[in-house]
UniProtKB/TrEMBL annotation:
Record's keyword terms, sorted: Oxidoreductase, Plasmid
InterPro entries: 2Fe-2S-bd_N (IPR042204), 2Fe-2S_ferredoxin-like_sf (IPR036010)
UniProt organism field: Azospirillum lipoferum (strain 4B)
Name of the protein described by the UniProt record: Oxidoreductase (2Fe-2S ferredoxin like subunit)
Pfam family, one: Fer2_4
Keyword 4Fe-4S: no
MF annotations from Gene Ontology: iron-sulfur cluster binding; oxidoreductase activity
SUPFAM superfamilies (alphabetical): 2Fe-2S ferredoxin-like (SSF54292)
Length: 109
């Protein structure tokens, strides 16, 4: 079965499931223009992957990425901010109001 009524695909949910430390302060951020919630102390990678199944689109094809080493060594988790600078998602704490993008903006290429 694919899709739902009105052609809207079902929300796939996050790749990561939070099992502990659920009492930390909530943090709001935007991911591709959609408001999402994380918890204070989450890395950007955790914040994103508890909301959606992938971290970013690769620059070189249709594949999606979700990080690899999770410790700042592999370079697989670079993600873009609306303001321009890229950040390494696995070693950057999420902050209130961050505006993150899962792909480069078309006007940057
Ligand atoms: S996941 Fe490897 S550097 Fe971030």
């Amino acid at each position: 079965m694919s899709g739902t009524a009105f052609g809207v695909p079902p929300d796939p949910g996050g790749r990561l499931v939070r099992l502990a430390e659920t009492g930390r302060e909530p943090v709001r951020f935007l991911l591709d223009g959609v408001e999402r919630m994380a918890l204070s102390g989450d890395t950007v990678l955790t914040a994103i992957l508890t909301n959606v199944p992938s971290l970013r689109q690769t620059e070189f094809g249709p594949e999606k990425r979700a990080g690899f080493c999770l410790m700042g060594a592999c370079q697989d988790c670079w993600i873009w901010q609306e303001q321009g600078p890229r950040i390494r998602a696995c070693s950057t704490p999420v902050a209130e109001g961050m505006r993150l993008l899962t792909r480069t903006r078309e006007d940057w290429t």
